[in-house]
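#random but structural
TW: two for the price of one
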Amino acid sequence: MSITQKLSLSVFILVFTLFAYAEQSNSLQKVINKYKFKESEFSFGIVNLADDQVIGLHNEKKLFNSASLVKIITTYIGLKELGPNFSWRSDFYYTGDIVGETLKGDIVFKGTGDASFSIEDLEVMIREIQEKGIKRIEGNLLFDTSYFGLIPSEVTFDNNPMRAYNVFPSAISLQSNTINFIFKSKKNKVKIKSKPNIKTLKIINNIKSTREKCLNWREKLRYETKITEQQTFLYFSGKFSRKCKVKEIDLAMLDWQTYFYHTFKQKWIDNGGWFNGSFIQTSEALDDNRLLASHYSDSLVNLIRDTNKYSLNLMSRNLMLTIIANENYVQPTEAMINSYIKNWLVEHQIESEGLFIDNGAGLSRNIKISINQFLMILQNIYYDPMMPEMISSFPIAGIDGTLKRRMRNSPIKMNGHFKTGSMNEVSAMAGFFLNNEKEMNIFVFMMNGKKAKMSQNFQEALIESVF
């Protein structure tokens, strides 16, 4: 379908009568002709909200993989269904009896999906418990993961299971289950530091220092773990160029249970306590009447800013599961997500035919959604009371988040808020921008194929041609 073709979309309480201005259509066609991408591999839509006119459409009905643009849907549904003040709760409670300063039983941690729960949050809770007089734990650390249903443990997305973006959703997570590693080239050696520095984790550094260019440095590193009863070894090998100077990477080198357990044990002892137990996980809800300490996350309206600006996969995957758990009072699994989203869209008069979304982050090769559907969703957002909160959560063109290094020399800089999506053979962008006449516009772009990663300049040129 050409960009000048008319189309009607029934969107919430407003009906778009799609009409393309000839001059603007010509400018868009010039951009398409200039970049010469295969026209079946990309789609886009541009709508001027000032007069509800469509400026351009291409392949608007065709289903594409949108990658992280799914986070727009997840965070919008989250604000609508959970509310902007929603926060996740994490609890410590106990089994057995407390005798003097000794807990003769297990200490239990129950999570409800707070992906923002940090080591600092954990230490605050530990201090609160110890200030109540408990110094010694004679039992184990129990993990109550009953809030979510069964989460698959196998990696199905790519061959980088330790990268932070691949962390699986979980009712319990600590520091997003990642350790920050800092690599610093010093003379002929590569130094490695970790945050947090957990005493029971030992780094084995076999990285070779080179003089080559600092290109694709992450792909040149190798890492693996070996876990014994007493210690966990983190092995690093590969190459690191001296020209890289200092680089950082977040890695999920441990399963979340081991990571949480080691950190808890160290922090409990560092604060003056004694604990030598192991850890046990249960998916059955335990009696939480013997509460020791509670932690509440920041409000959802604040957390979605980082979720969208920095495209946080764990946060968005946990959020979608939390929405289902709160609404249906079930132990949610990601197998429930597609039917939930499609039903939600239908209830809000948004077309859902052919749509497929299997997790809240868009980290999937199976995502299917059209430009028409995204235009409807963004138009709903714009006329929703939550509009300011949603738009402010998107990266600002040329300023922050995933757009910090894009559009810095473009007239769109600071005039647009766009969520980006990218993975191998997928590039996408969607959001809102003000044109030269200060009229608000919606823009959605998706491209699938081997040349998708080369389409960023094309995306920006389409916007600039109507700016």
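TW: number two ↓
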Amino acid sequence: MAEYNLPIDKDKRKDIATGDEKVDNENLHINRNRHEVQPVVSRAGTSSNFYVIENRHNASVVLGRDVEYDLLNDTDIGMVDISAGRVPNVNVLGKKVGNPDDAVETLGDLIADAAKIYVSQKTDIDALYGFTPDIPATGRSAVGIKADAVRLVSRDPASGIRLIVQPDSTGPTAGKNSQGGTASGVLGGVELIGPGDELMQPLVKSSDLAHSLGKLVNYIEKLEIMVWDFVSYQKQFNSAVSQATDIEAFYASKGIPDPLLIKQNAKCSLDLFSYVENTGRSIRGDLKRYLAGDLGMTKDGPLFTRIDDPVFSSKYHKLN
């Protein structure tokens, strides 16, 4: 007897069961009639404008009008809906119902259908997918793709995959979108949104980051030189102290300090002030400016406060 990997949802084919395990296993897999329980694409109501191509496997292509702007009786709202695995959401009268058990047909569901490519001449694509970005796309042509797994595959590494956000520079739509609205001078880009509630943050531009870190390395090198100078000057003074001899008139009287030691002490103090203290103040100022100018932060006591974006933040690419 052949080994079969049974379908996930056997209830959808229970009406072809015979009671004979061998026959049922064969029918479930070979299934020459390819019978499946599925919703029919509704042709009632506003959907009477639809042109539908569908088969018996819940796969269909619908040519019609945008699902939302059609309700407003708008124009310039052509739509193509390519779907596999539609869910029922309307009754026989073409009215949407909340309970799937009361639905026998489908007008398409951008959120729940198993796999879909939705193309519209004018739509509110973010709202249709249930997204609420800060700047939603409304009244614009759009292409939406949704499935359990989505892959964009380039077989030629030399060509790769490019995500481009750029207005047309020539032709009748130069500087405009498909609806005639302006598309120039607007900051836009690519946002990568994953699961979770993290806030969107700008991605890092590597060249600018390397330049900024190079400045930080330079400050650290200055600190190293300052410490080296301090050690050097302190060694010179220590050497002078170790060889100093006080001048005394009598053994019982307090002696006079060695004048060479006094001179060396003064020189050490002057060197430390000139090459250590002043350098330290200068580097401290540089680091404050680096903190604010490059990192966009200010230090308030032991804490850091964000005042701006880092200089190496991208304006056009964001990630949560």
